[in-house]
Amino acid sequence: MRDDVPAAIPLFTFLIALTAAPWLSRANATAAALVLVAAALLRLRRGRWAMGAMAAAAAILVSQSAQRRAAAEITAFERFRGETFLAIEAPIEHDWSQRPHVNVLRSSRFVAGGRSFTEPIAFYARFEPPPIGDELFIRAEGFLRRDERGRYSISIKSPRLLSYTGAASPWSPATWNRRIARRLRRHAATRPDEIAMIEALVLGRGERLSDSTRDEFKRGGTYHLLVFSGLQISIAAAAIALMLRWAGAPRGSDLSLLAFALIAPPFIGTSASVSRASCGIALYAISRFAKRPTSFENLWCVAALARLLSTPSDLADPAFHLTYAGAASLLFLGKPLARTRLRWVAYLFAAELAIAPLTLFHFHQYALGGSLATIVMTPIVFVMLMLGIGFCATELPFFLDAIGLLNSLCSAINVAASPASGFFAAPPAIALAVGLLGALLAIGLLRGRLRTAAVIIALLIPTAAAIHHSLEARSVEHAEIAFLDVGQGDSILLRSGAASVLIDGGGRSDDPRFGESVLLPLLADRGVSRIDVVVLTHAHPDHCGGLEAVLRRMRVGELWLSPRRLRGECAQRMLAAAAASQTPIRLVGGERTARAGAFELHAFTSDRPHRRAPENNASIVIIATAFGRRTLLTGDIEREAERAIAPRLTATHILKVPHHGSRSSTGAELLAITAPRWAVISCGRNNLFGHPHPSVTEALHHARVRTLRTDRNGTIVISLTPRALFVSKEIDTDG
After folding, report:
1. Which residues are paired to 681 by β-bridges?
2. Model's pTM, two decimal places?
3. Which residues are 633's β-sheet partners?
4. Are 160 and 139 in contact (CB under 8 A)?
5. Cα distances (angstroms) measured from residue 57 to each of 13, 40, 661
6. Which H or E element spans position 106?
7. For residue 692, cis peptide bond before it (omega within 30 degrees of 0)
């Protein structure tokens, strides 16, 4: 095996420069200086370091170009944000996905108001959209939105505002993909799970996979096997090449590899995994044609460098991190360790060591059995891939029966591996950067056993930092109230020592996985693994959407509910989760009290039903007192309920502004009775409801109440001690 990896140094310097470029004040001058340094190094016959200097210069120029483009796009968006009815056009790259009450289509780029945007966009249609044929573009009219995570979206209100345009070439691989998918969907009504699996494995289309299937594979740590990714491309290309070599056609084998690498991305899509595998296969084939053999390690470095040159934004993309780290762990760590007798154990250890900190950082999840499950399931998935290709060619029911059987086997393997998975705190970004860049530096500069040891030590840094952070955060020194930034919704965490109370769980009606993707990571980062009391103030999706995941994935002491207006799909899912986890349910009728560490909780509801906004006005109201300081948590009550509960209220230090600052709440009587010093408004950035209403913020200003908002300040934590009250904000600005 060749141990030399000359391409690692250019890749390392490119990564460093790409990371540092946004903070360089004279980027172009720095790039020019690096070019001169490269020329000097060439004269000194230091070719490897000269390539590194050139790569650093290229990274700076690429980064500066990307920054200018991003700034121009944001400026363009700000000109018509939420005010202009736009015609938006985007390439059709996927099919519509069905979500609760909405259909979603995603695209990697779009054009709005005559301006091109290189960011992804999601089209939401609350009606059944017309089926997509061979058209190239989707065209929709509506208001362009940008959420708190910087993601663009448009809600299409009517089928008349949606159309498809352009005609795809019949010779395009993407057209072949679509036509096969349309043929498969004739069988989707009778065999939905099997057809969805074939679309995912053969065509790279995961839109129709059920949420239960996704959850099973994610908990088993094998989700990367679920779509046609780099692993399947590598296996398929290797199978074709080996068959041709056995047939005595080595040149034809190399040609097949090159052709496969060129056709696969347009057929399946240019994800990080697909591009990595395709680029590596193409470079390997070219090196054989040129009779310049190279190592797989060098191919990995060059493929990563090529991907970042073409798409520098991938530097922050989870898919890029996972696909390249996974391959690197096998090449640079698994292979040296596999020289021992315990070969498979070595590869498992290498994969877990590299992937674990990345999955913790991006998803706050771990799946310790994922690598073993992957090894067991890879041949099963490959057989399913072959069976899927067979069904696409013949449409014989036998293939569907076999796929259904193997899919059940995969499900059993994932269930067996799932106890070793869960949510955990993410490593600090600096620890992750130090660990991964340290590993790459060791790959480029060291050799042999010293390299292997250095890579292991470097990769242990982020995981160790995550464990330390979680252990440190499991108990808090002071009583604290955290108003979690969950977008347009409420979620409030009370903690004192090791005790914790969660009031509402945020949520979105079009995102059934809100709990797993948003709420559980927020709790895991705070070291919360058990919650003494979960309170649902009322059963609206923006309050109960995340609680299903909490009840299913965490230990919960008891669940408090309002006895009125407990209805709707979100409430039913939450009740099913409570039943499955055997969580005791307590109804808050007149009053309920409890103690959690230093907090005394006094919960109650309005003592009569209300005709206007009955769900909001039935919200559970909680007075949380610690060290003599009262916090009033109001759910979504409106002025009618505010007047009804007024006799129970007294002066308050902290007020959670009712109903996200809606103009139907926070009346003068409430402010006069409670006279709060601080007010917190929980609402989403650029939300569709206009929360908080100017009349509410003006009333708080005139009452001289210091006001914080999750849309501007992120998560807000208020710490209570016997002597003082401390406020900390995730985003330290009120602008």
Report:
1. 709
2. 0.83
3. 622, 656
4. no
5. 9, 14, 50
6. strand 102-107
7. yes
SS3 content of the chain, % helix, strand, coil (to 5): 55, 20, 30
Q: Name the residue among 498, 697, 720 with its Cα closest to residue 630.
A: 720
**E strand or H helix at 97:** strand 97-99
Give pLDDT tens digits for 157-190.
899 999 999 988 888 888 888 899 889 988 988 9
Three-class secondary structure assignment of 210-272 = CHHHHHHHHHCCCHHHCCCCHHHHHHHHHHHHHHHHHCCCHHHHHHHHHHHHHHHHHHHCCCH
Task: Tell me the average pLDDT across 284-288.
Answer: 80
pLDDT of residue 735: 45
Question: CA angle, 117 as apex, 114 and 121 as ends, to 5°?
Answer: 110
Contacts of 553 by beta carbon, 8 Å cutoff, 6+ apart? 422, 423, 515, 516, 520
pLDDT tens for each residue of 673-697? 999 999 999 998 878 788 999 999 9
Q: Which of 520, 509, 607, 506 is nearest to 556 (CA)?
A: 520
Strand partners, 508: 511
CA distance 657 to 611: 22
Please state, in angstroms and rounded to a whole number, the distance separating the CA atoms of residues 684 and 159. 28
Do the strands 654-656 and 678-681 form a parallel or antiparallel pair, or are they unpaired?
A: parallel
Task: Extract the tokens encoding 583.
Answer: 């969580």
Nearest to 536 by CA among 476, 484, 605, 468: 605
Taking only the tens place, the pLDDT of each residue in 428-444 is 999 998 998 899 888 88
User: Are the C-beta atoms of 607 and 644 separated by less than 8 Å?
Assistant: yes
For Cα atoms 418, 419, 422, give the angle at the middle one, nearest 5 degrees: 80
Closest CA to 205 of 46, 74, 94: 94
Length of the chain: 735
Structure tokens at 95: 């099919």
* 725, β-bridge pairs: 720
C-alpha span between 573 and 512 (Å, rounded) = 10
What is the crossing angle of helices 370-394 and 343-363, to 10°? 90
Given a cut of 70, is residue 81 above it in pLDDT? no
Cβ proximity of 656 and 665 under 8 Å? no
Identify the CA nearest to 287 among candidates 298, 301, 277.
298
CA 52 to CA 11: how far, in whole Å? 7
Rg, Å, the chain Cα set: 28
3-state secondary structure of 317: coil
Distance, in Å, from the CA atom of 448 to the CA atom of 456, rounded to the nearest integer, reads 13
DSSP assignment letter at 34: H
Distance in angstroms (rounded) separating the CA atoms of residues 723 and 31: 55
CA angle 529, 534, 535 (to 5 degrees): 155
